[in-house]
């Protein structure tokens, strides 16, 4: 895209600049290699869908801190709520001296999460911690040890999180042994359904696979819970057939297995509803939440049926910083913003634009194997048109070309051959279009070796 046509993005030709290079040297000296970074960007300020770096470059944020910024960077109402809370008290530890924001957020989550039954909530610090506690609660309530997750699923980097996560590199390689009594069931991949099989038959086939799994891999009598991302995140933004999700959910009901919906990335409007479970017509026993829960302030939650949540005795779940007052204040402000501005509806509009844009490029670029998504949780998968092998290198080059041109973008998928979109839901139409044009131009440069005129 001609620089004269860019309204929001501004990246110097010598990026990364001198301030960034100096910080990179310090980062290499003091921060471990294992802390990965997808871009060499050091942020000075962020607002809405824009990031300003320490050298004055301006980027469009299509990554949203891995889905944390649904409400945008620094929403004024959230900033104000955190400031007000910090002036009163920052931390007292809910286990020692309780505070009203914790109760207020638990009450609000009981109201807005799927399920017409009494609910309770424990507040924690991170998504992985929410998963750990959901597993503990499920085991305590059922008295059973087994936990089932799915191929390509991602549930965190803690011991239990790794055990439930499917991708070996970089998350599990040489990190074992892992937690026992964890199992992986097959998860649909509609792009790769057998030739000639209808979508309906494929969904039924996948449900039967899960039913067989309960005979061949893990007996229901030993299973406490199934944990599922309604749409797989790190696995490649795989949208399963609704009949599969409902079929697994019904089998859990039939076999006295709890159903845990991991809505850490799908929650808070990303998929076009406040929670993706609503789209699939299920009422999970437990829901794990984090990421966009508080617009970047660290907090997470497990919300579930009251009788299940009450299974652990006092002191058996919790943590020193769990449900910090600052996180609670931020989360309450985010929920109010979501409801007031109807950000789930905005997500649907963003998703339609992204899917339409890339669907229009599929004929021009046969490397685009599929454009998919639910709401604003969209992805584009790249395969070699001749061999159908994943084009990981192309995607890696595309991500690099995009941030050098002013769009922060992430890859995903087991093979790293998917670009995923996690734009803040407050992104404007003009910002979204500019970012999409930059991505399309970067793709043209990589595939064709020359710039393409983007209308």
TrEMBL record:
PROSITE patterns linked to this entry: AA_TRANSFER_CLASS_3 (PS00600)
Annotated GO MF terms: (S)-3-amino-2-methylpropionate transaminase activity; 4-aminobutyrate:2-oxoglutarate transaminase activity; identical protein binding; pyridoxal phosphate binding
Transferase is among the record's keywords: yes
Cofactor: pyridoxal 5'-phosphate
Reaction catalysis annotation: (S)-3-amino-2-methylpropanoate + 2-oxoglutarate = 2-methyl-3-oxopropanoate + L-glutamate; 4-aminobutanoate + 2-oxoglutarate = succinate semialdehyde + L-glutamate
Residues in coiled coil: none
Source superkingdom: Bacteria
Keyword list, A-Z: Aminotransferase, Pyridoxal phosphate, Transferase
GO biological process, one term: gamma-aminobutyric acid metabolic process
UniProt entry tagged with the keyword Nucleotide-binding: no
InterPro entries: 4NH2But_aminotransferase_bac, Aminotrans_3, Aminotrans_3_PPA_site, Class-III_PLP-dep_AT, PyrdxlP-dep_Trfase, PyrdxlP-dep_Trfase_major, PyrdxlP-dep_Trfase_small
Assigned protein family: Belongs to the class-III pyridoxal-phosphate-dependent aminotransferase family.
Family annotation (PANTHER family): AMINOTRANSFERASE CLASS III (PTHR11986), LEUCINE_METHIONINE RACEMASE (PTHR11986:SF58)
Name of the protein in its database record: (S)-3-amino-2-methylpropionate transaminase
Source species of the chain: Cohnella pontilimi
């Amino acid at each position: 895209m001609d620089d004269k046509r860019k309204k929001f993005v501004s990246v110097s030709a010598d990026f990364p600049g001198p301030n960034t290079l100096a910080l990179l040297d310090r980062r290499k000296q003091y921060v471990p290699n294992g802390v990965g970074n997808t871009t060499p960007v050091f942020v000075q300020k962020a607002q809405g869908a824009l990031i300003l770096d320490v050298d004055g470059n301006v980027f469009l944020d299509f990554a949203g801190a891995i889905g944390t910024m649904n409400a945008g960077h620094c929403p004024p109402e959230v900033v104000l709520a955190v400031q007000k809370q910090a002036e009163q008290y920052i931390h007292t530890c809910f286990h020692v001296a309780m505070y009203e924001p914790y109760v207020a957020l638990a009450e609000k989550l009981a109201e807005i999460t799927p399920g017409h039954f009494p609910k309770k909530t424990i507040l924690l610090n991170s998504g992985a911690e929410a998963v750990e506690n959901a597993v503990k609660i499920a085991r305590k309530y059922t008295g059973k040890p087994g936990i089932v997750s799915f191929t390509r699923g991602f549930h965190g980097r803690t011991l239990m999180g790794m055990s439930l996560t499917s991708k070996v590199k970089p998350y599990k390689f040489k990190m074992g042994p892992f937690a026992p009594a964890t199992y992986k069931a097959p998860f649909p991949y509609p792009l790769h359904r057998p030739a000639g099989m209808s979508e309906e038959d494929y969904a039924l086939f996948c449900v039967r696979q899960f039913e067989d799994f309960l005979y061949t891999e893990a007996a229901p009598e030993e299973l406490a819970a199934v944990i599922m991302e309604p749409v797989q995140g790190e696995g490649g933004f795989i949208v399963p057939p609704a009949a599969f999700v409902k079929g697994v959910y019904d089998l859990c009901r039939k076999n006295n297995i709890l159903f845990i919906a991991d809505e850490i990335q799908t929650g808070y409007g990303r998929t076009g509803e406040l929670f993706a479970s609503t789209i699939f017509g299920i009422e999970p026993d437990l829901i794990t939440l984090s990421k966009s829960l508080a617009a970047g302030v660290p907090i997470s939650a497990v919300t579930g049926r009251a009788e299940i949540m009450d299974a652990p005795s006092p002191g058996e779940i919790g943590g020193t910083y769990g449900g910090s007052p600052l996180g609670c204040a931020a989360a309450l402000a985010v929920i109010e913003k979501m409801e007031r501005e109807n950000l789930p509806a905005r997500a649907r509009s963003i998703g339609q634009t992204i899917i339409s844009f890339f669907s229009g490029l599929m004929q021009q670029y046969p490397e685009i194997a599929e454009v998919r998504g639910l709401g604003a949780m969209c992805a584009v998968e790249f395969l070699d048109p001749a061999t159908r092998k994943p084009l990981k290198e192309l995607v890696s080059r595309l991500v690099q070309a995009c941030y050098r041109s002013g769009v922060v973008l992430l890859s995903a998928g087991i093979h790293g051959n998917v670009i995923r979109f996690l734009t803040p839901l407050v992104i404007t139409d003009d910002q979204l279009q500019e970012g999409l044009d930059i991505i399309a131009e970067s793709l043209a440069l990589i595939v064709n070796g020359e710039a393409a005129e983007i209308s």
